[in-house]
Amino acid sequence: MADVFDIYTIIFLALAVFIFLRLRSVLGQRTGRERPPYDPYSARDAVRSPAAEKKVVTLPQRSSDASSRPSEAAPPPAERWKDVAESGSTAAAGLDAIAAADSSFDAKHFITGARTAYEMIVTAFAGGDRRQLRSLLSREVFDGFDAAIAERERRSETAETRFVSIDGTTITAAELRSRTTAQITVRFVSKLISATRDRGGTVIDGNAEKVTDVTDVWTFARDVSSRDPNWKVIATETGQ
Prior knowledge:
By secondary structure, the protein is of the alpha+beta class. It has a domain at 84-238: Roll (Nuclear Transport Factor 2, Chain: A). The protein is 38% helix and 25% strand. It is built from six helices and five strands. Strand 1 (158-177) and strand 2 (181-197) form a beta hairpin. The radius of gyration is 31 Å and the shape is elongated.
């Protein structure tokens, strides 16, 4: 009887080992390098993060471990602001100071945002969109734009502006003031079709059909100590 019991015990043990080995081959082993499971909710939250919902002229947000990645080493000083500012220039030194105070600063992304803001502001001014202007301009600049819009409304005049192209965007100056206020001056060269009409629809300024070359020099500013990544226009002038 004991021999029979031993034989069946050996058979069951052999089956158990066989089943274990089969499961191991199908399910595999944990090596410590497995990818975490995909979480659709975390991906959604990343897309809808507050930084992504800010208005234009925002600074791109880098991940917290970006500086630790070998593949993202800082470029040599001579190439850091390539295609943005001349190496050794005052503007380049200003950009260095801004980047030192705000590690998320990216000059090329700033230029992209500045171009978008420029077009939005010029179009909003023509359309009398005070709400849009208020979100992109400093209070002093907004007050000047608001006064011009009010005067146009008083005369029952309307303005229309269409962008044909933005042909050039150049950083002409950059500096960090009082250790927290970043200021960047940008020269825009664009082609516009712009005209002002009286209450009867007659063009009294500009030309509704002619493309005009326009140069503007605007200064943007941002408090780098603030969590708000938005830049605002603090000065505007017509350039040459």
